[in-house]
Amino acid sequence: MRTASLKAFFTVMLTITLGLGLLAGTVSAGKTKIQIAYSEDVSGHKINLELVKAFEEKYPDIQVEAINIPEKYWDKLLTMFAGGTAPDVVYMNYMNLAGFADKGVLEDFMPWIEKSPDFNLPDFFPSLIKQVRYKGGLYELPKDFTTSVIYYNKDMFKEAGLKFPDANWTWDDFRNAAKALTKDKDGDGRIDQYGWDGLFDTSLNTCWIWQNGGEIIDSDGKAVLDSPQNIEAYQFVADLILKDKVAPDEATFSQLGGASAMFASGRLGMRIVGRWETPTLAAVKGINWDVAPLPRKKARGNTMFIGGWSIYSKSPNKEAAWKLVQFLTGTEGQKLNAKLGLAIPSRKSIASTPVFMESILPPASNQVFLDAAEYGRVLPITPYWQPVYRVLKEAFYQIRTGKKTPAEALHEANASIASALKGE
Asked: What is the H or E stretch that residue 368 is in?
């Protein structure tokens, strides 16, 4: 009997100990513990750790565990959501927003904002909030964003006798400059300097569609990739690459290390890319460069990328998670992030201050990124984005390699996108 009693006693104590251990995952030494997950390189992870440290200093009763998932982030996040083990706060981008929101795993921020009078939602760039709303809810708060612009080599432009690109540039101006910048400098019959990188990035090259008044998916949710406007836009791109040969082919592009390396080494006159390229170029010595707005045809248009934070809808610590999101997307967090110049603060009040305007680039150049926000566009927000993206990627590959005409590639792609939007 004594042995049985001792066994029962230890069983009870073990149960109590395990229960306390589980509670310690949420509350430890009087502190509320929460987790935040994101996908960053070493420098990005360091930045987030600094932000977390600043938050903990302001809120000493909250302890934050930062989890960096540099590889297969979205797959792992999906697994954690499915298993009910997701972190309290997670990095979210607009391309994956709809898929997670439809699964009911993201918290709608509007009720929290409505009971937080000091939050000041109108301080965010209106275009950002508009782009991340989904089915009447706001499941992501932007922490920063980037528009896409032309990065150009000023010395190459001067050598070619070209005026620097500006807000008045048209497609014809872009094409003429790209041709003038493409040169065989040593006379061996091979191009040494290209005018443009060819915009291999699938997301970025949708800018041509919007500049010509086209859409990928219309307001009724119908696939319209093979519209006359889009075919015309990608015929323009195909001619630049295949007819004018102002961009390297696949083999040369890979051999020379890609667009970033080619631009930094003086082998590329122009490239279209986002703000994230700025810190890298600023560290390169001997290259004289600047940025300018993208060219236009029927309209202005550039691909905009938005990154933000979401709260797990089943988090047991939503109050603490909301405080963290408020800090990261508020003026204090934005100021810390803006100093690095890697992206554009999502709050107008911070983006217009010297903290950002005088970071890395001169104010006039930084203003180019801000101006582009007025006509920036994001890719379609749909729960079927991943299959749509794969179709777009294949279509653009077929076009730039000349395997199919723009009309052929976009017609086939549109049929596949239409099926994907039906969940087929």
From this structure: helix 363-372
- 25 by Cβ neighbours in 10 Å (0-12 / 13-18 / 19+) ranks as exposed
Task: Give the global pTM.
Answer: 0.84
Q: pLDDT tens for residues 223-266? A: 999 999 999 999 999 999 999 999 998 888 888 899 999 999 99
Protein fold of 149-301+384-421: D-Maltodextrin-Binding Protein; domain 2 (3.40.190)
Alpha-helix residue ranges (DSSP H) falling in 59-167: 73-83, 94-102, 110-114, 126-132, 154-159
Where exactly does CATH 3.40.190.10 map onto the chain?
30-147+305-377, 149-301+384-421
Going 118 to 119 to 123 to 129, the CA torsion angle's sign is: negative
Strand partners for 300: none
CB burial string 47-58: b at 16+ within 10 A, e below: bbeebbebbbee
What is the CATH architecture assignment of 30-147+305-377? 3-Layer(aba) Sandwich (3.40)
